[in-house]
Queue: 3 jobs
Job 1
Amino acid sequence: TTLGSRPSAGSPRLAELAPVRQVATLSKMRQTLLRTRLGLSLAASVVGAVQMAQPARSRSSSAVLPLASSMQSSQRATAVLVHGLDSSKETWSGVLADLAAAGYPAVAYDLRGHGESPLGDPDEFEPAALASDVLAAVRAAGIKRCVLVGHSMGGRVAMRAAAIEAESGGASVLRAVVVEDMDISPRTAPELSAEKRREVAAWGDGGEGAPGRRFASWGACREALLPWYDADEVRVDSWRNKRVRPHPDSSWWSDINPLARRLAWERVLASDDGASAWRELAARSGSGGLPFSVQLWHADVPGSVVKEGAGEVGGIADMSGKMPAARVR
């Protein structure tokens, strides 16, 4: 897969988290029947309330109980899914449906500057910040244990999140970390002229004179995106109603953010933070073990973007040698 590509919902690697099943939907007949019954029930309730209104009885306060949800379960760890380059939580929609159908709690997050998440200060766009955002969101959601899955560029974020949790010394929310289709070899960021750097800054969080990622129409958004993606009309058009979609106010929102893409290339993919995080994890793994398992998943050659050769520095074999406890798939 290319960097930032959509992970396959039918992938045998993701299938190991849960069986792949089609999500069932109510038939039109069942939906009509449900609406009819609900309408009659509501009507009866209103009539009854008018005819038999009585003062409400006081109730003693009771303890608030923790509720299970689609994001967490008392029996299974939550799958926390982190997307790759030029992507958003939308890329996991098929996988989320499969996990839900199999009874596995799951949640997908937009990294800062991607999807519907704000970019914040571009100077603070670093692997540690992205990883801390994810960990904070997990804890804010009340998730007590999770399997963190980072796809492509998200795999670098997952590595740093794992290193942060291992360093904290406290009870970790992680039960397993899956780095999917990413190694620790630094990439080379595409060159960008000074003029282009000024232009891409308009894709920030918006404000006076900066539209950000909201546009008046699909056409306006399409024209704004094309110059940043080699005028690839097929690729940009494929995002319509998915990663670029209309809002109720008739404007169009772009999950795709050329500025976040640029920052991800320079600060995450082209950096040595992946190698640094992996060394930290390997050291802790060898000195007493990690409180969670680590797995490396990669696509079959030639579809993978990772280095797999035994002598390739920063590749899968190199990573496995540095941390033998990591399971390679």
Note: The radius of gyration is 23 Å.
Job 2
Amino acid sequence: MNTTLRCFVGRAAARTSVHSHHLTSKSQQQLAFVSSLQSPSTSAWLSSNYSARSFSAASTGQAPEIKLYQYHICPFCNITKSVLSYAKLDYEKVEVNPLTKQELKPWSGDYKKVPIALIGEEQVNGSEKIIDALLDTQYVQQFLQSRWNDEASDKDVMTMQQFQNSENSQKWMRYAVDDLAALLYPNICGTLGDSYDAFSYVKNVDSFTGGQKISIQMLGSLAMYFAASRVKSKRNITDEKKALKEALDKFEHDGLDGGKLSFCSGVSTPDLGDLAVFGVLYSVNGLQAHTDSIQLRGGAVKEWYDRMHLSVMGEKVQHQIKLGVTCD
């Protein structure tokens, strides 16, 4: 759960202290995997040597060239990808081996977490820095404003300030990053079987060898299972499914006004808060936690998710439930 690890544990497990000097080499590999997730504190993952205005695409109307280094089910990587997709930006994805992080060596320096983006020639570390950098480009600003003008009525056209920096947008961005991502993590790794399933994505990564896929799924799932226990202890969670349900209840009640609002932005188009929450939930697409949180929950959250899927992905979602049942 390399992907998940870096992502989910990014905020939750990264807060847990580990004493590595007593570990075996295998345990050290597992912990290295966990620590490769984005750091939990905002200040930690905002720290980098990158200035959001430093790359040349920021001041031109050209689409930036983007390469994204990611873990497939990392919530923070998926927040970033939701913004990229919403802005219709082409980008190259590079799946990082969570055990070795070989794909990041040696060019990324001391920073070995994901996501990392190469935007033009510049390295940008962490999801929020990447998003800020993208939204700072003239190309993205012009594209989004044109999209909002086309999609919204005259009275509720989104602005870049409202989309990115409004109190409401920042509130739900923080909810997605600080709360929802951490709660999803123990829900997908609460048992060894669930954790092993969460890492099944590696089977579809062509750049990994057969041996790497086996080792990532086995060692990664074991590391994530123990990390999930630490997250539950840190957050005083006794029932992870109940905690996740209550978090989504809050989003439904406060963010969507019980289903009266199409988006938590409060207008007819989503803002950055909507994209962040969607990205976190989409990161576990295909797993039981996603089925429980979206398909089986139904109601306002599922309706919002379906609208977000269409807005971000450009196509209607097909919900896959266990036993191969498909529902709209």
Note: Strands lie at 66-70, 92-95, 116-119, 122-125, 319-321, 325-327.
Job 3
Amino acid sequence: AANKLTPSSQPFVGATSEVIRTISGIEHRRLGNSNIAVSAVGLGTQRWGSTDFNAPDVDECHAMLDYATEHGVNLVDTAEQYPIPSADRGVQSEGYTEKIIGQWIKADPARREKLVIATKVTGSSNINAKNIVKDVEGSLKRLETDYIDVYLAHWPARYTPQSNWGQSLAYNVDAEAAPWYRNAMPFEEFAEAMSKLIDQGKIRGYGECNSNAYGLGALAGAARCAGVPPPIAFQGDFSILNRRSEENGLAEACSPVNENCGFMAYNVLAGGMLTGKYRTTPAAYDLYLEGSEGAAGKLFRTPRGRMDTTGWGPTLYRYR
């Protein structure tokens, strides 16, 4: 049975992950204790319009939106900070990915009802009541919509080892003193700020990305104490190669018998490793470390994917 110990102002709606309907073979599941039903498969948009060597352009992104919505997919995951990597200025600067999605919606406003849009406010010291209001307005404008379905902190205001793409389970006490974590927005204030946006009709629900079980438990508890809606979604790096969202307790905390919160996975192909394209020949960076500089250089010049680039290759080491 799902946990029904919610404040009287927050009635139990249903169990997260409950299948609400199936469209074109794709299950649409309840997200947290809400009426939002998201497709089990979603569109990740981090690289849409980016400066990456093989990033999809506007037409390709719009074609993906067309195909997805025609085949049962409604979830689109984006962020105000996308694309990554982005340009310092100009068209491909931060916010461009939301604009690409907004252009697709503006061309036919009826398309908006086909999507569940999850976007993110930049984390760390950017998280405060003033910036949450300012940033959500920016996202609404770029997305050409008057509401966002799920609004997430891209990473928490506080320090957590999961904030860097969930790369570590080890807690570094010294990191708490970093200037960008000082005076971090308290859980209660974050929940209340999100509740105001819900009351204003600007978002339907909220949560955190790159967090952990402590973050969910503390945020949900703070929301209950304040009598405001609890988070409906947490998001984390998760694949058959990366199980840290289970290992850090988040999967347990999200369960309907506990906090009844939805979980959204990203990087489910582990940076491309699970496509199989690196099975025969290792990633360029690994070849370089092995001393095969010639083979590595060739792949660096004509990469198969992010694992063969000088920037992403070392960053995504944890999948190899």
Note: Confidence is low (pLDDT under 50) at residues 3-8.
